[in-house]
Design a protein that fits this description.
By secondary structure, the protein is mainly alpha-helical. It has 30 helices and no strands. The radius of gyration is 35 Å and the shape is elongated.
């Protein structure tokens, strides 16, 4: 019986890279305080009147007689429930009477009530009006609050005036104003971006013990923004803020320990700091602590704890936690497997623009898993993630164009998206782009480009790329024939259990191409591929048994392996069986 030795090349549209891919969640990042994160200063008691032990009835009489200080004091009593039933509406009413008489502290507090909607309907324009009146009388906190109001989006926004107000308050020593100015210079909001100026103002506020500014100052030292990098100073300022139970700082200290930034990596210490912030409801810390529990890093691995933390953060709108909770539902880790719930949480995260979630949601639509199958929806979400530069989604969008799933088949567009992913070092995309060049699909046929992209993928351990390179060198297809190189690449693929590679390495041993001829080795590699159900290897193994090559002759074994291959439609095996029956 004639033996047919041939090198097998992978298909143009290979099964392995055709899978839709997902990617896991991201870890912790530096945070710092957010822009406009300082908020309004609250109301205050001024002039000592609100601290007196005078009965409410005496104050009431004086207030009703038109005494502005008494009106202000009575307003404070109603606001605090001091000697009278607490009543914000009454407080607002008495603040107004005093404010209309020009009483600065009442003007300030009336502004606070308009800004917060406490005791009356919130009205930013009225808040601005009363803060301005109080500021004009030298109330520094009113100057700060006026600046904050003027920063808000809306008809009253005036960034130039806001900067002026904040600077006045900052120059008067108001720590929040100093910190806010730091943020504005940091972000280039209302002023030219100036990291050095931001550093100055953060420092002034930080030295007054303002935790938010201490945290942002630490970030500047940690990232060498506006100053020389100094992780020791960064840690010092973060600890000062953390000692005030400021969750942003506690979280950032956790990141330092988690990543080993300026300190020896210590995931247990990271977990401790994340927990402090998490217990205050800080979503990003809840997410990061959840990751540590999911991975068993610094804490005992506990998928249920992880799920609980992801849920807490996700319910606060943290897109990373929402995505990870979706993953837990999809995999059934720490919670009953439920792809419908996975889709719900992926959608929440995707709606916030998180590319990982967009891609995973698209995969569910493409597979009809947890949602009704909808290839058009899949393409929509793949595209959103791909346009953000997410390589998994770029590859998946390329697959969609290649197969015409949810979009008109377009091999040129497939190649475009494969290239975008390949340019990020995405091995499956590198392979598929190589295949496109090899076959001239969507791009001009170019053997040199094909080999270059196959090699990039192969060097990352892509078994199909390794096998493809081996086939190219074995056949001299587009390059000089080189059996030694062919065997080297076949072996890499075979060592990963890739059936084509095992089969081709068997052929090389059988023919002595690039290695010493060795039928026993050939048989061993054919067997490995055959046991994976690879029909060509099953047929070849049958031939080895039939001829007693590399193995004791055994027609029963030969018949068995020919039968397995023939059942898969292998024509040569079917012919061999017919010949054996003659």
């Amino acid at each position: 019986m004639e033996m047919r030795e041939e090198i097998v090349c992978p298909q143009t549209s290979p099964t392995q890279p055709m899978r839709l891919v997902r990617r896991g969640a991201m870890g912790g990042t530096w945070l710092g305080a957010g822009l406009l994160g300082f908020g309004l200063l609250a109301g205050m008691a001024v002039g000592g009147l609100a601290q007196t032990a005078a009965p409410a009835v005496d104050v009431q009489k004086a207030a009703e007689a038109g005494d502005a200080k008494a009106q202000f004091a009575l307003a404070l009593k109603y606001e605090a429930g001091d000697g009278v039933k607490q009543d914000d509406e009454q407080a607002a009413s008495w603040f107004r009477l005093a404010a209309e008489q020009g009483f600065a502290e009442a003007q300030y507090d009336l502004g606070v009530m308009y800004s917060t909607g406490k005791g009356l309907v919130a009205n930013d324009q009225q808040a601005i009006r009363w803060f301005r009146k109080a500021a004009d009388q030298g109330i520094v906190d009113a100057e700060y609050n006026l600046g904050v109001e003027l920063l808000k989006d809306g008809p009253g926004q005036n960034l130039t005036e806001a900067v002026g107000c904040l600077r006045k308050a900052a120059d008067a020593g108001n720590a929040k104003a100093q910190g806010q100015l730091g943020l504005m210079y940091d972000a280039g909001l209302g002023v030219a971006k100036d990291s050095k100026a931001a550093l100055v103002w953060y420092t002034k506020a930080a030295e007054q013990g303002f935790a938010s500014a201490q945290t942002n100052l630490a970030m500047m030292y940690a990232t060498s923004d506006g100053t020389a990098k100094d992780l020791t100073l960064a840690s010092t300022w973060l600890h000062k803020a953390a000692e005030q139970n400021y969750p942003d700082a506690q979280y950032d200290i956790g990141v330092m320990y988690e990543k080993g930034i300026g300190v020896a990596r210590d995931p247990a210490e990271a977990a401790s700091w994340f927990r402090k912030a998490s217990d205050q409801g800080f979503a990003q810390a809840q997410y990061n602590l959840g990751l540590l529990y999911a991975q068993g890093d610094g804490v005992t691995q506990d998928a249920r704890q992880a799920v609980g933390l992801f849920r807490k953060a996700g319910e606060q709108g943290n897109p990373y936690a929402q995505f990870r909770l979706g993953t837990q539902y999809e995999l059934g880790e720490g919670v009953a497997k439920d792809t419908g719930q996975a889709a719900v949480w992926y959608r929440k995260s995707a709606d916030l623009g998180f590319d990982h979630a967009e891609n995973s949601l698209a995969v569910l639509y493409a597979e009809g898993d947890g949602v009704a199958q909808d290839f058009a929806q899949a393409v929509t979400w793949f595209r959103r993630a791909a346009e953000q530069g997410f390589a998994d989604a770029q590859f998946n969008l390329g697959l969609s164009y290649m197969s015409g799933s949810g979009v008109q088949k377009d091999l040129a567009q497939a190649a475009v998206w494969y290239r975008r992913a390949a340019d990020q070092g995405y091995a499956d995309a590198e392979y598929n782009l190589g295949a496109a060049y090899k076959n001239g699909e969507g791009v001009a046929k170019d053997d040199a480009q094909a080999i270059a992209w196959y090699r990039k993928a192969a060097e990352q351990g892509s078994e199909i790329a390794e096998d493809s390179l081996g086939a190219i060198y074995a056949k001299g297809d587009g390059t000089a024939q080189n059996f030694s190189l062919a065997v080297s690449w076949f072996r890499k693929a075979a060592d990963q259990g890739y059936a084509d590679g095992e089969y081709n390495l068997g052929v090389a041993y059988l023919q002595g191409d690039g290695v010493a001829k060795d039928p026993q080795q050939a048989t061993a590699w054919f067997r490995k591929a055959a046991e994976q159900g690879y029909d060509k290897a099953q047929e070849k193994l049958g031939e080895m048994y039939a001829d007693g090559s590399g193995v004791a002759k055994d027609m029963q074994q030969a018949t068995s392996w020919f039968g397995k291959a023939a059942a898969q439609g292998n024509a040569q095996a079917a012919q061999n069986l017919r010949l054996m029956k003659q």
